[in-house]
Amino acid sequence: MIFQRLIWSALAAAVLVGSVQTGVQQWQATPIIQAAESYESQKAAPAGHGHDAAHAHGAAADEVQWQPEDGAERSFWSWVANMLHAFSMALLVLAAMGVCLWRGTRMRSLPLALLVSAAGWLSFHFWPSLGLPAEIPGMDAARLGSRQGWWVLAAAGAALACISLAGLRSALRWPAAAAWLALPFVVGAPQAAGDPFAGFGPEAQAALRTLDARFIWVTTWISLSFWASTGVACGLAFERWLRPVLAAAFGNSRTAPALEVNP
Amino acid sequence: MNASSTHTTSHTGGFAHAGTARSLLLQLAGAAALGLFVLYGVAFAESPLAHNAAHDVRHVTVKPCH
Fold first, then answer.
1. Residues of B with CB below 8 A from A137's CB?
2. Minimum distance, in Å, between the CA of residue A120 and any CA atom of chain B
3. Do A96 and B13 touch (CB under 8 A)?
4. DSSP code at position B61
5. Contacts A141 to B, Cβ<8 Å
6. Backbone φ, ψ for residue A111 (5° rounding)
7. Is residue A114 in some structural domain?
8. Is there a domain that residue A165 lies in?
9. A259 or A108, greater pLDDT
10. How many Å apart are CA A217 and CA A170, to the nearest integer?
11. Tally of structural domains, chain A
């Protein structure tokens, strides 16, 4: 079953990428998140909305919910979440590479994986971030559901643009890709009604704005490292465990010799 | 098992592989769907448990949080 091979390949990539990501995040991002959280208790509660400090968000704010203790427990759950995130993205990258093979690509596994990962970075990080930049805890924002909806729209628009460029043969692929890229911005990203830091005093506001600006850059570098390492891991896994089986089964004269003919 | 069944994978192109190729494409689609499902759980699920466990990762990966 190629499905099982896909799962195992994605898991191998996920353990590697998720673990490296956890290390990078502990070093670069977690200090910013925790610094922002230290200001969260100073936030004036918005009128008519009882909001506990720190983690109790959303509809369940009045109940005490489990949350990991700061330190090892919180790092452990971030590690688990990072591996699941890397697993989900590796599955998409490997599946997309399989489709490329079916379509007759002659690219070698590693460059193909890096190209697909570049499309992943554009779709799952860069394009949504243009409308909804990275946020530190404590910022006010538009309603969660509408932001999540726009995020999906932006990611899907960028992914469809990449698919149009890769899959369509006609000259129409360029305007098609441009239209898909433009769609989320024609709709427009939901924005907070006022200043995202309105609930804080002047000193906290200044500190949080600095933290937020740093966080946007840090998350940009972290996302590049995530997709670069996902590309390398998926390229190696695809070459070793998936390409031989897929090339043999798709078995047309375009793909099978590509393994041997490549310089 | 006879010899012809082993030969189909090595000799014939096109039609003989159509069924296999379709099955493989379905499995690729299944893997992609599983990937999207896991992404939903990590990055979007509203359950407070999922949110609190993955909180920092949601912020770092620039998913709408809170």
1. 59, 65-66
2. 13
3. no
4. T
5. 64, 66
6. -60, -40
7. yes
8. no
9. A108
10. 38
11. 1
For residue A219, give the chain B residue with the closest CA.
B60
Q: Is residue A59 included in any domain, yes or no? A: no
Q: Which of B36, B41, B64 sits opposite A151 (nearest CB)?
A: B64
Chain A residues with CB-CB distance to B38 below 8 A: 84-85, 87-88, 91
* DSSP code per residue over chain A: -HHHHHHHHHHHHHHHHHHHHHHHHHHHTHHHHHHHHHHHTTSPPPTT----STT--GGGTTS----PPTTHHHHHHHHHHHHHHHHHHHHHHHHHHHHHHHTT----HHHHHHHHHHHHHIIIIIHHHHHS----TT---S-HHHHHHHHHHHHHHHHHHHHHHHH--STTHHHHHHHHHHHHHHH-----SS-TTTTS-HHHHHHHHHHHHHHHHHHHHHHHHHHHHHHHHHHHHIIIIIHHHHHHHH--TTTTTHHHH--
- A40 located within any domain: no
Q: Is B39 in CB contact (< 8 Å) with chain A?
A: yes
- Residues A158-217 have pLDDT tens digits of 999 999 999 998 999 999 999 999 999 999 999 988 899 998 999 999 999 999 999 999
pLDDT digits (tens, 9 = 90+) for A19-46: 999 999 999 999 999 999 999 888 876 5
A249–B43 CB contact, under 8 Å:
no
Question: How many beta-carbon contacts under 8 Å exist across A and B?
Answer: 167
Contact (CB<8Å) A67/B52 = yes
* Domain ranges within chain B, ordered by starting residue: 3-60
This prediction's pTM: 0.86
Q: Does the beta-carbon distance from B44 to A148 stay under 8 Å?
A: yes
